[in-house]
Amino acid sequence: MRFVAVCLLSGYVWLGVGGVIGLFYGYTYAGPTYDAFLHTVFVGFTFSMIFGHSAIIFPAILMLPVKYSTKFYYPLALLHISLVMRIVGDLALLHQIRLWGSMLNAIAILAFLVVMGGTILKGRGER
User: What is the pTM of this model?
Assistant: First the structure.
C-alpha cells in the first residue's frame, strides 16, 4: 500500500504545480505555458492516480490477481522525471528537452502496462 500512497501524494504535488503555473501565468490559449499546465494535470496528476489505483482496480473488476512488485516504482519514477523534463522544456523554451520528456512520458506509461501485465501473469501462475 506504500506504492499507492506515493502515487497519490505525487499526483497531488503535480496538481499543485499545475495550479501554480495557472496562477503565475494566467489564462493562455496555446503554447508552451498551456502545454506545461495541461501536462502537469493530465499526465502528472491523472497518470499518478491511474498507476496508484490500478493494483486495486484490476483485481476487483477483471478478477485478475495482481502480485505487488517493487518494479511498479520504476515506471512511476520515469513518469515524474520525464514530466519534469517536459515542464522545464516548456517553461524555459527548450524544445529538445520538451520532446525528450514527451517521449519518455509515453515510454513510462507503456512500461507500467508491461510491468502490470507481468505481475498479472505471475499472479496467475502462482494460483
Answer: 0.91
